[in-house]
Structure formats: structure tokens, C-alpha cells
Amino acid sequence: MTVSQNNNPAHRAAQVTESGGPVRISVVQPREPGPGEVRLDVKASGICAADAGMAANPKPAYGFPITPGHEVAGVVAEVGEGVAGWEAGQRAGVGWFGGSCGHCTACRSGDLVHCAERRIPGLSYAGGWATTITVPADALIRIPDGLSYEEAAPLGCAGVTTFNALRHSGAEPGDRVAVLGIGGLGHFALQFAAAMGFETVAIGRGEDKRQTALDLGAHHYLDGSAEDAGKALRAMGGAQLILSTASSSSEVT
Ligand SMILES: [Zn+2]
Ligand SMILES: [Zn+2]
Predict the structure, then answer these.
(1) Which ligand number lies closest to the CA of residue 70?
(2) What is the pLDDT of residues 188-220, one digit of tens each?
(3) Which residues surround ligand 2, an ion (CB under 5 A)?
(4) Which contacts (CB < 8 Å, 24+ apart) does range 18-24 have?
């Protein structure tokens, strides 16, 4: 590991040091950005289910200790050689997309997320459960001033996943859209769906999710533990799109 010249002993990371081991907070040295890389001081970092899986069953490409974290928001601290368009002090984040090769078939057709050599923070290199992260500059997302770091961080994975599913679905404003599962992804899906002008139906399990779903913008709530949600949805006239954020789709089949 290259140690940055302006290293800061106060930098810390939540790391797993061995397979099956616990997550521990360690003091780390920032990695100086190489050519084409940028180092961020991390201000907020999400905890995604994929991170939890990574921490429990780590298969790091970069060896132990591993640092999970792919929902990261912070401030540009150092810019590596040859990086254009970024400078220290800018607000920036990195999500599940952690860099691409720029020359494979997918990259050349603009489909960067399906790059044959796509990189993922936490898996391909030390991730964002830390106060510092060094990433390829092409992985960075600019964060608008109106968005807090805490709001911005999870948009890089849970947010973009549901946003893209909705905007590429073909549903039009006014159409009825159902969101199955009111967890981390569902929270985003409901807010995006309502803001996009869809008549938004939340399908959860239990009455305790009802008020949350309505507060997030849902127009209707179906409790799949108390009624046949698929039948209830059909009785409403069906839906143009059912966005499933749950691992089981039995509610609507
Ligand atoms: Zn994730
Ligand atoms: Zn590529």
C-alpha cells in the first residue's frame, strides 16, 4: 500500500481481518491516488445487504483486511495524475459502480455497468466503511449542494437500482405501479414512484409498514400478511409495473 504524504493517523476503517471474523474499527493510512484515481474523505457511508454479505463471507480481490462499503459520499481530498474535471473540496460519491475498463464491448457501447472488468468498492478495492477511500475517477458521482451526504450515500446503490428500474419500465405518469417489499430498496422506490407521477401501491407485510409507506408517498397500502395482495391488486385494475424489491415474489404470484 502506498502511504499518502499527508497521511492522517485519525483515519479509520471498519474492516474484516479474516474469513468469518468480526468487523473491527482500525486506524488506517489513506492510499495516495495513483494515475486516474481520486481520494475522498468520506462523510457518510451506507450499509447495504451486499456489504453485510461481503463482511460475513469475504472474498476480497485485494486480500485481507477487507473494508466493505459501496454507498459512499464525501469530499475530494486528493486528485491523482491525469485526472480531469475534479479538484479538492468538491462533493462526490461512489456507489456499486466502482469503475470500468473503457475499452470492452459494453464500455464502448456506453453500458458501463456491464463492463467485463467492472470494479466494485469493497470487492475490487477497499470500500467506503472508512473515513477515506481511493477510487478510479470515472466511478465518481458529483453530489449537488442541496443533498446531504447522508441522503446522497445510499443513492449510489439502493437508489440507482430502483430509480433505473422505474424510469426504464415504460410506465407513464398516471399509470399504477406497485412496489413489493418496503425495506431499503422499497423506501426509495416509493418516493421515486410517487415523484414520477405514478399511482403508487405499496405491498408490505404487516400493519406497521402502512404509515411509513404512505408517508413516503404511496397512495395505497396492501398488507400481504392479511390479504391476498395479488388479488387485491387485480381488483384495483392491476398494475403497469410491479417492482419487486423482495427476494420472494409469492405475494403477487
Ligand atoms: Zn448495495
Ligand atoms: Zn469495460
Answers:
(1) 1
(2) 999 999 999 999 999 999 999 999 999 999 999
(3) 100-101, 104, 107, 115
(4) 18/64, 19/57, 19/58, 20/56, 20/57, 23/55, 23/129
